[in-house]
Design goal:
The protein has helices spanning 14-20, 23-26, 43-55, 73-86; strands at residues 3-7, 29-35, 59-65. By secondary structure, the chain is α/β, with parallel strands linked by helices. The protein is flat.
């Protein structure tokens, strides 16, 4: 895979993930997006979980958008560009 994408997601146990993850997956490109107004999955929790992964060596790009638990048009356009870059 060229990379991994998470939209308004969360990591169940980021510290355990760091212990158990395949090193090849850890060094892959990752993109996580999240809405600052998300009422389903709290933004600050996801932001903190991504930080744990970044500090643990994951190549994770984290982008936030002023949106709820949805996909924003600007977000979708950015994802398309990210996918093109990740696969080249």
């Amino acid at each position: 895979m060229a990379g991994y994408l998470a939209i308004s997601g969360y990591i169940y146990d980021p510290k355990k993930l760091l212990e158990e993850i395949n090193p090849n997956v850890k060094s892959s490109k990752w993109l996580c997006t999240h809405g600052t107004q998300d009422g389903v999955l709290p933004y600050l929790k996801s932001e903190a979980e991504v930080k744990i992964l970044q500090d643990g060596g994951f190549d994770v790009e984290f982008r936030s958008y002023f949106k709820e638990h949805t996909i924003d048009r600007n977000e979708l356009d950015m994802i398309v560009e990210w996918m093109k870059e990740a696969s080249s």
